[in-house]
Amino acid sequence: MSLPAQIPLDLGHRTAMGCEDFLVASSNADAVAWLDRWPSWPAPALTLFGPAGCGKTHLSQVWRARSHAVITRGELLDSGVVPALLEPANAVVVEDADAVSGRPEREEALFHLYNLAREQHGHLLLLSRKAPSRWRTRLADLRSRIKGAPAVEVRPPDDALLAAVLVKLFADRQLRPGLEVITYLLARMERSLDFARRLVAALDHASLAAHRGVTVPLAREVLSELQRTEPQRSGSKTTR
């Protein structure tokens, strides 16, 4: 793998929670555009779908900062708590929304939540690994409503986005590794924004403990240890 002498950092920036910045790239630009349209969505719900680590949760934090939404999870949905979810801000983030599929009580709860949001002019942001068309929803009315609402794919980060994220995460910790370190990590790390955060945190800790800068040898040691201790996921690579 080769990178340009200057890693492009002209990606769009979005302030998220705390001091983090959200980087806008081709993999998430459509999702960002839809979140920008809120509250003028054509339906009460919007589904963001994509693999673990692609940035769905971070995007939901961006939206939550604007909408003050309550956060819940698909496996926790219950019809008895639905009205309370909409009371604070009339907006709800449902993580792992596809977890309701095949569970009649959860499907009923999400159906109730959708209808109540529509009646109250509220909104739901549904996060899922799978597109709604692939949910195994048994409740026909719920299936119809979810499929009729917009759904946007968030793709795994490409090299340009991962490089920009790594540079920014290092800069947040006052670290300035050389281009060779970024190149080394990109060729071997898991293609995940979550993994990038854990990797940079581990490198920062190792650098402080060893009183040494972030170099390729240190990156090799830390990356190897992370890959050894964490379950291997799709998109991860072997350290060499």
Mind explaining what this structure looks like?
The chain is of the alpha/beta class and 240 residues long. The chain has 2 domains: 28-153, 3-Layer(aba) Sandwich (Rossmann fold), CATH 3.40.50; 156-229, Helicase, Ruva Protein, domain 3 (Orthogonal Bundle), CATH 1.10.8.60. It is 45% helix and 13% strand. The protein has 9 helices and 7 strands, in the order ββαβαβαβαβαβαααα. The chain has a 5-stranded parallel beta sheet with strand order 4-5-6-3-7, sandwiched between helices. A two-stranded antiparallel sheet has the order 1-2. Strand 4, helix 3 (82-86) and strand 5 form a beta-alpha-beta unit. The chain is elongated. It starts with 11 loop residues before the first strand and ends in an 11-residue tail after the last helix.
Secondary-structure blueprint of this entry?
Blueprint: E1 12-15, E2 21-24, H1 29-37, E3 45-49, H2 56-67, E4 70-73, H3 82-86, E5 91-95, H4 104-119, E6 123-128, H5 140-148, E7 151-153, H6 159-172, H7 179-188, H8 193-210, H9 216-229
Parallel strand pairs: 3-6, 3-7, 4-5, 5-6
Antiparallel strand pairs: 1-2
Largest sheet: 5 strands, parallel
- Total count of domains: 2
CATH superfamily of the largest domain: P-loop containing nucleotide triphosphate hydrolases
Strand residues, percent:
5-15%
How many strands in all?
7
H/I helix tally: 9
Distance from first to last alpha carbon:
13 Å
In which range does the helix fraction lie? Answer: 40-55%
Low-confidence stretches are: 1-20
CATH first level of the largest domain: which class?
A: Alpha Beta
Overall mean pLDDT stands at 88
